[in-house]
Amino acid sequence: MSARRDVKKRRIVDLSQPSLDLFTNQPMSSSGGKKLRLNQPLAKGQDQPHVVKSEVKTTGPAYAYAPGGTGGAGLAVTQPTVTMNRAPGKKLVIKAFKVKPKIPENFVENTWNRLERAVRAIHASTPVADSLEELYQACENLCYHKKADELYSKLRAVCDEHVQQEYTKIVTIPADGSVLHAVDVSWSSFCRQMILIRSIFLYLDRTYVLHTAGLRSLWDMGLDLYRERVMDGQLPVKKNVIDALLEQIKRERDGERIDHHMLRSHLRMFMDLSIYFTSFDPMFREASELYYTREGERLISELDNSGSGGDAVGRYLQHVDNRLAEEGARCAQGAGYIDVGSRKGLIATLESTLITKHVRTVVEKGFVDLVEKSRLSDLKRMYSQLSRVGALEQLRIAFASYIRKAGITLASDPARDASMVEDLLVFRDRISTIISQCFDDLDVFHNAMKESFEFFINQRQNRPAELIAKWVDAKLRTVKGQTDEELEIGLDKALVLFRYIQGKDVFEAFYKKDLAKRLLLQRSTSVDAEKSMLSKLKIECGPGFTSKLEGMFKDIDISRDYMSSFRESSKYTSQLGTIELSVNVLTHGYWPTYTPVNCNLPDELARCQEIFKEFYMSKHNGRRLTWQHMLGSGLLKCDFDKGRKELSVSLFQAVVLLLFNNAETLTYTDISKLTGLEEKELTRTLQSLCLTKTRILNITNRAVKTRDLLPDDVFAVNQDFENPLYRIKINQIQMKETVEEREQTEEGVFQDRQYSVDAAIVRIMKSRKSLSHVQLNAELMAAVKFNVKSQDFKKRIESLIDREYIERDSKDSNLYVYLA
């Protein structure tokens, strides 16, 4: 054949002509290949062409040699489809060559020379003489003739030579910004060159390299060469580049602007060369640790010099937050130039140098000031940073210590008793706000607050419980301008403080005392509010705690039924005349114990008492009534020169005012004899009538109105009294609770506690068999929730010895022994 035709066209094969050698273009010998056979054998000597009209597909390669040259570039390899015209019924047989075709002697060398020239032109960034298609075909031909191994080795050698030349250009450049530019240009050019070279040798890369174990792809081969020849650890270029990169990062940390694109290019080069985490990352982390260690020490030194203060600590915390954000942005995927794999180690380094090393200084210098000034943003920042390094325990300790110190200041000063409860509520609200908004509402901080409040609020034993009870009493008494919602919120807050006190029975004693006055004198805001507080206490302490308080409400309800029955009975009401009587019958065990106060009632009032007593005894024969005059009240109609008024007064005030129905003037001594009141009670009653704004009585014998009343003072009704209201309430002057009265209340509480103390001592002695006095006292304090005075403890010990629960040791009087 003279030339290769299009395989899709029909071919006419002249069977009379001898076959040609496809490489030498010489006729082949008659025995050089198999003859074409048809269905019927050709006649001997037949040499005319025979046209066969059928297609025959050959499975082996066919070769065609283009005329006009002897180089390997003219050799083409195809898989043709041979089309022949075959007569019907004839069989075609194709025989292989007897002698295997050979490539020309200079075929490999000439082909490689063309490829080498192209590779060197690419390295030199000059135009390539041949087309890429021809170069690709040349590579394919060499691979087909099993020259791929030789081709791969020669290509690697040429690339190696080029990379070494690149190294000689870079190695002389100093380790500053210029080396980064030079390496960036070299690396970018090398990557472009390797992509182009790989496209030419793609057939080699996808066949020979792919199927040969242990052989690197062309791209990886190029990376290996660049890493070994330019970025090897023994060579100075890599160190110079890393030093220059670290210097650029340091400049940016100092506030200068740098070329992020160049840094990103170099660090991606390190990633491509697989030396990022082995070479750059350790040095980067070491440099970062050194930088932030120095910075942290400098800032803490400035903090020490400035003294303690929340402002300086707040600035330091803000600086640490800014650094964390900056380093996070440098390692952000996509936006940052440092690989995201460095983020964890870098942030850990920053946390160690700026937070962990200075936790104690930061907390000691600024925590208290930040809390006192309620700088919530800085406190939240401190919590966030300490939680990063697992230092929340130091924060919790400082938090608890602050609460204890501030709480002791509020609760332990007797001068602040008047505002102690309000101050504690405000203080607790502030602490709760800090926990919820700054400390993520963690239970450890809630527990720290609870333990700290319990610590300082019980330092004064029973006094806080008493003040909380009185604060609740003030809230539940009739107060103008207070809505039901505000009252409910106040009661909830008081209940929070109630949970902290250990002497809850002390609270119960004072609360019961005040509740009795509210119920009997009708001073309560509302029955619903009272019952709401009662239900809260019941939920908090159980039904046993509120059983007596519930009994007080039950007595009021029963007394209301008594009075309805009394008023419906004309037998009794007809005897009262114009007087309206209302009596509350109280169960002795439910209500506080009151000391009876002697008082000589007017005849009309004494007669009313007897009438009701007769009514009550008719229903409950055998019971005994004890009248408590100090809790009584009344409504008097008084005629003054300027009109009639109704005065709401206490029973003692009513007794005094009724005396002036029979006399124009009375001396202090006369009033004392007629009423039979003791001096303190009489003085308090007269002061409320003549020394207040609603002055019902005048002192006629002296002009100076002092609070001290004299025995010879003369009192008369103030006929000029006037008031725009028709009904006026005359408030009784409240006597301050004396130390003796408070001790009496506390003594009554201890009388109730003694059973708990006795039971605790017996349980301890039963388990331990024998204990010294000091040991028993210590274990008792741990067993009960209230403090026991040493003298009370001794009394209970003596009581148990008398009842033969324990005894003193015969050899050691300070040792107690349990008696089974």
UniProtKB/TrEMBL annotation:
<keyword id="KW-0234">DNA repair</keyword>
<dbReference type="GO" id="GO:0042254">
    <property type="term" value="P:ribosome biogenesis"/>
</dbReference>
<dbReference type="InterPro" id="IPR001373">
    <property type="entry name" value="Cullin_N"/>
</dbReference>
<dbReference type="Pfam" id="PF26557">
    <property type="entry name" value="Cullin_AB"/>
</dbReference>
<feature type="domain" description="Cullin family profile">
    <location>
        <begin position="463"/>
        <end position="690"/>
    </location>
</feature>
<comment type="pathway">
    <text>Protein modification; protein ubiquitination.</text>
</comment>
<keyword id="KW-0227">DNA damage</keyword>
<protein>
    <recommendedName>
        <fullName>Cullin family profile domain-containing protein</fullName>
    </recommendedName>
</protein>
<dbReference type="InterPro" id="IPR036390">
    <property type="entry name" value="WH_DNA-bd_sf"/>
</dbReference>
<keyword id="KW-0832">Ubl conjugation</keyword>
<dbReference type="InterPro" id="IPR059120">
    <property type="entry name" value="Cullin-like_AB"/>
</dbReference>
<dbReference type="GO" id="GO:0031464">
    <property type="term" value="C:Cul4A-RING E3 ubiquitin ligase complex"/>
</dbReference>
<dbReference type="GO" id="GO:0031625">
    <property type="term" value="F:ubiquitin protein ligase binding"/>
</dbReference>
<dbReference type="InterPro" id="IPR036388">
    <property type="entry name" value="WH-like_DNA-bd_sf"/>
</dbReference>
<dbReference type="InterPro" id="IPR019559">
    <property type="entry name" value="Cullin_neddylation_domain"/>
</dbReference>
<keyword id="KW-0833">Ubl conjugation pathway</keyword>
<keyword id="KW-1017">Isopeptide bond</keyword>
<dbReference type="GO" id="GO:0006511">
    <property type="term" value="P:ubiquitin-dependent protein catabolic process"/>
</dbReference>
<dbReference type="InterPro" id="IPR036317">
    <property type="entry name" value="Cullin_homology_sf"/>
</dbReference>
<keyword id="KW-0597">Phosphoprotein</keyword>
<dbReference type="GO" id="GO:0006281">
    <property type="term" value="P:DNA repair"/>
</dbReference>
<dbReference type="InterPro" id="IPR016158">
    <property type="entry name" value="Cullin_homology"/>
</dbReference>
<dbReference type="Pfam" id="PF00888">
    <property type="entry name" value="Cullin"/>
</dbReference>
<dbReference type="InterPro" id="IPR045093">
    <property type="entry name" value="Cullin"/>
</dbReference>
<dbReference type="Pfam" id="PF10557">
    <property type="entry name" value="Cullin_Nedd8"/>
</dbReference>
<dbReference type="InterPro" id="IPR016159">
    <property type="entry name" value="Cullin_repeat-like_dom_sf"/>
</dbReference>
<comment type="similarity">
    <text>Belongs to the cullin family.</text>
</comment>
